[in-house]
Amino acid sequence: MVRRKTVRVYLVEPQKVVSDAMRHVLEQDATIEVVGTTGDPRSGEIGELRPDVIFLDTDAVELDVEEAIAACERSSPQSRVCVVSAQHRPRAMQRALAAKADAYVAKDTSPATFLEIVHLVANGDSYADPRIAGAMLRRRSTRSRESNQLSSREFEIVRLIADGLSNREIGRRLMLSEKTVKNHVSHILAKLKVNARSGVAVYAIRSGLVL
Amino acid sequence: MAILSAYVIEPQLMFLAYLRQILAEAGLTVVATSNQIDGKDIAAHDPAAIFVDLDFFDRGGPNALCKIRQATRSAAVIAFSSSDDPTYAASCYISGADAVISKRDGEESVVSSLRQALAVAPSAN
Questions:
Q1: Rounded to two decimals, what is the model's pTM?
Q2: Gap between the Cα atoms of B80 and B53, Å rounded
Q3: pLDDT 10s digits, A94-124
Q4: What is the mean pLDDT of chain B?
Q5: Which one of B8, B9, B15, B102 makes the best mutation probe of the A interface by having the most chain A beta carbons within 10 Å?
Q6: A15 in contact with B at a CB cutoff of 8 Å?
Q7: Looking at the complex, does the CB of residue A111 fall below 8 Å from at least one CB of chain B?
Q8: Taking a C-beta distance cutoff of 8 angstroms, is the pair B12, B56 a contact?
Q9: Beta carbons of B104 and B57 less than 8 angstroms apart
C-alpha cells in the first residue's frame, strides 16, 4: 500500500461552526492535518504556518475573491489555494480561477470528494467543479490561440472531461474505443501542457479557451 | 431527554454531516434531508423540528421561511445564517422562524441555542 504524505491544510472560514464542520470532515482522513483556521485571509498566521493547501470560503470573507486569493498568495506563495463557494454561476468560477485559485469547489460537494480534492491539489493538480466547468465549456463562444491547437474532436473531449466523464464514458458518448479516447487525452494534455485530466478544465477556463 | 425528529434543508454536504452530529448531541434524530424546500416532503415527514440554512436561497431567508411555514405550522423552524444583522434576523422571525442561529458561533453556542429554541417551540414539547 502506498503511504500518502500528510497534507497540511489551513481553513479561511469566518463561520466558526462551518470551520468546525470542515475540520471534522477533513480530519477523518489520517493523512490530512488541519493546522489552523482564521476568518481573515490577511491573517499573519498563514505565512507562519505555510500550509500545503488553503481552503478559502469566498462567500463569507469580507474581501472580494481576487483580493482574498492574492492575500493568501502573498502570505504563503507556495500554498495551493482552493476556493470554496456556494455559487454555481460560471462567472464566479471563472473569476476565482483567473485570480490564480488552484481549485474551485462548490459547497454541495460530498465530503468524500472534498477529501480527494485535498490530495489532488496538494499533488500539484488543479480542480474545477465538473458541473460548472462543463456548462462553461458547452457555452464556448470563441476559440483562443490555445484552442486552435486542438482538433474539433479533441475540443469535444475537453468538454466531456470537464463534465467529469471517464475515458470509457467519453468513448460510449462519441462511439470511440476507450483506447482511442486515451490517445486523444494524451494529445490534449501534451498540447495544453497540463499533467492531469483534472487540470484540463481549469486550464481551459483560465487561459480564455472558453468565455 | 426525548428523541425528536428533525428535517434538515442544507445543500452544503460537509456541514450537513457535522450538523447531524450536533443535532444528535441536542437530542434530535434526522429523519430526512434535502437541498431545497419541498413542501410535500416536509408535510409527509411531519418533523418536530426543521433546520434550514438560509445562505443557500437566492431570494433570501424570509421567502424560504414563508414556504416552509406553508408546509407546516406545527414544526419548530430553526434557521442558520452567516448574517449577524439583527434586522435580517427580525425579518426571519416575522416570516416564521422560531430561532435564528449565526453560523459565526461555535459548536457549543449552536447547541445551546438549539436547546433554547426547542425548549420554547410548542411542537417540541
A1: 0.76
A2: 5
A3: 889 989 999 999 988 999 999 999 999 999 9
A4: 85
A5: B15
A6: yes
A7: yes
A8: yes
A9: no
Measured between CB atoms, does A191 come within 8 Å of chain B?
no
Cα separation values, A122 from A51, A105, A125, A161, Å:
10, 14, 7, 21
Give percent of chain A with pLDDT exceeding 90: 47
A110–B106 C-beta distance less than 8 A = no
How far apart are alpha carbons A203 and A196 in whole angstroms? 11
Place of cell 474505443: A177
CA dihedral (B75, B80, B84, B88) in degrees, to 10, reads -50
- pLDDT tens digits, one per residue of A181-208: 999 998 888 888 787 887 888 877 776 6
CA distance B101 to chain A (A): 10
Given CB atoms, is A107 within the 8 Å cutoff of chain B? yes
Separation between Cα atoms, residue B75 and residue A202, nearest integer Å: 44
Grid coordinates of B33: 434531508
